[in-house]
Amino acid sequence: MSCWVVNVGYKDLKTIVDRDKRDWVAALESQKAVYLINDTATGKMYVGSATGDNGMLLQRWKNYVSNGHGGNKDLVSLVAQKGFEYVKANFTYSILENYNSRVGKDYILQREFWWMETLGTKAFGYNN
After folding, report:
1. How many domains would you assign to the chain?
2. In a domain, 1, yes or no
3. What is the CATH number of the domain that holds 73?
4. Which of 18, 32, 94, 122 is the most exposed place for a label (fewest CB within 10 A)?
5. What is the spatial order of strands in the sheet that 91-99 belongs to?
6. Per its UniProt record, what PROSITE patterns does this chain match (predicted)?
7. Which of the 8 DSSP states describes residue 69?
8. Is 3's pLDDT higher than 70?
9. Which is more confident, 26 or 63?
10. End-to-end CA distance of the chain, in Å?
C-alpha cells in the first residue's frame, strides 16, 4: 500500500476525466483503492473501493463523473432527491488507500469495511 494526498471537487475530477490529463489518468487507471466521497454540505461521507482490473480507480471515478452516484444505492437516492447539480456543488473525492494491481480484491474489501466502521459511514453516511 502507498498513500497519495488527493482531495478534489467534482469540477476538478470532471476536468481530469474529460481532458484526459495523462499524469492523472496514468496514475488512476493503474491503482486499486479505497476512496472517500464527502458531502461538504452535510458532512456525510461514503467509502467505496475500486477493485476491478480494468480501469481501476479511474473507471470508478468516471462513473461518478457521468451520473453523480456510481450506482450506489444511497447516492442514487440522493441524486434523485436533490439532483445531479447538488453533487457537482458539494462532493469531494479523496483516496484513503491505494494499491498496485496485484493486490487481491478480498484484502481491499476488508480495508473498505474497516474505513466504513472507523468513519461511521454506515450509521451516519451514505454507505447502506
Report:
1. 1
2. no
3. 3.40.1440.10
4. 18
5. 7-9, 91-99, 32-39, 45-50
6. GIY_YIG (PS50164)
7. S
8. no
9. 63
10. 26
The predicted pLDDT at position 52 comes to: 80
DSSP string, 73-94: HHHHHHHHHH-HHHHHHHEEEE
- 58 inside domain: yes
pLDDT of amino acid 5: 60
Which residues span the domain enclosing 87? 7-124
Q: Where are the alpha helices (DSSP H) in 2-120?
A: 10-18, 22-28, 56-67, 73-82, 84-90, 105-119
**What is the pTM for the complete model shown?**
0.89
Euclidean distance between CA atoms 33 and 59, whole angstroms = 11
Q: Per the structure block, which three cell numbers stand in for 21?
A: 490529463
pLDDT at 54 over 80: no
Local structure of residue 50 (DSSP, 8 states): E
